[in-house]
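Convert to structure. Protein one:
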Amino acid sequence: MKAPEISVVMGVYNNADTLPAALDSILSQEGVELEFIVVDDGSTDGSAALLDEAAKRDPRLKILHKRNEGLTRALIEGCALAAAPWIARQDADDVSLPGRLAAQLARARQADAPALVSCRAECIAPEGEVLFVTDALDDPEDARRRVLRERRTLSAHGAMLFLKDAYQAVGGYRAEFYYAQDVDLSIRLAEAGRVAVVADVLYRFQFAPGTISGRKNRWPLAFYRLILQSQAARTAGRSDQAILERARRLGTRCAKCRHKPVSRFPAWYFMGNCLLAKGNPSKAAHYLHLALELRPWSLRAWIRWRQACRQALRASIQEVDA
């Protein structure tokens, strides 16, 4: 094997259904030498055996099995094994589209030398509908402003590519942030250097109940607030150690209930709203109906569902008239 140009790092926890597609989407990438480091975070659904079998077929796959501690610690251990100068992320329920890694590496090697390069990504509902596409940020300064001032990531977490030296210099993923670890890392990389986004849509991620993207609950929001406080402390020249300690304690509490069921209502409602805005009222009504089955008392869901039904009816009538 040639020395890898990119180390792709992925954490896996009970992703047997989506894992084959995620693995193939990376191993089929062309135009770049890569190694694929996959950390099995204590899976119990057959993911571990699937990974071991895949590693027998492709020597670029390096599998690490560990006890379940959450995504952040899995990524820390995976990135520590990276042999390449660049580290790319991939999530186990997402896919990288053809040409993704080569395009991001080419952008990273341009004269302005960004330390963090993302690409545009499309967010997909469970039945394959495109909910939204992340923003095109052609100007690197706009991209950096997005991270530092708006405190938002450039795209999906799994679409990130970053320079290993820069990652290590800023302290890498911080174990204290059980959730929102990508926001924390993106901010610190943007503080240290330039960032960029490839304009092409080269990544596809799922938004569904049960996925990290679909978990709109109080835990990620609590970590996000601590990340903003940490950034403010650094900007003011103060230590953020006290904030990190609060994040660590929060993470301990969060880990104790990480396998508890999460309400599916926010995810269904969000998908319905997205599809209504995109002009797909019939599918919007479908997802909003799922939301109402969980919370039939939700006035906002009823209002949106009726809007979607009326629009779907009008569209159906227009098709008949045509």
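Protein two, convert as well:
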Amino acid sequence: MILVLDAGNTNILLGVFDNGKLVTHWRISTDRNKSTDEYGMLINQLFAYEGLSMRGLEAVIISSVVPPLMHSLVRATNKYSGINPLVVGPGVKTGIDIKYDNPKEVGSDRIVNAVAALHKYGGPVILVDFGTATTFCAVSAKGEYLGGSIAPGIIISSDALFQRASKLPRVELMVPGRYVCKNTVSSMQSGIVYGFVGLVEHIVKGFKKELGWDNAKVIATGGLARLIASQSRVIDAVDGLLTLDGLHIIYQMNMKQTGREG
């Protein structure tokens, strides 16, 4: 079994692969204040609930865009599984040629998603990740990460509206069914959901025009991908497991760099 783990600013996504297949996965809240043992025990309990044992792991691979968490997650998985985790970063093979001005600025999650998208859908491909931020990435058929765009995430935007406008409530994110609404809650849902649909469609169309990629596939991932994709005409597929698949693929490229202590 292989444990793959991606730590984002809002959630940590975990999955277990066995014989190349994803057998279970979990999403837990990111908590920078949790200790090594707290994370270790939490992951251990998730395994136990599924009738699995961390001591049965043969490898662990970790990706994180939250630097303060990396030490705790590496130590936690090492202590409770006996495995030296492979950490996605410099020196790890991904098959992606990063064309950013400074390649180190590209979050590991974006590279992991690019790896998965190329393997699963081919290129060129445009990735839209609905996470803490809404990110757009362009990956060529040759495996070149050409760059992208970063916008505020849907949750961040809706929370800011609630916090800064004293008379506006916190609302459930759902499709209101109409643009012109007759109450505050529906009006906010209309503005947030359809506003992000418009943002996504405009940026994706801009990517295709700028790069000459009329036939590029557009793949959406992240917690709110299905909500926006249900209203968008530019998203070809929603893949909520893209990051987990990418981590597994990267592990296979780097098998000799990870293993059990001892």
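The chain has a mean pLDDT of 92. The longest strand covers residues 21-29.
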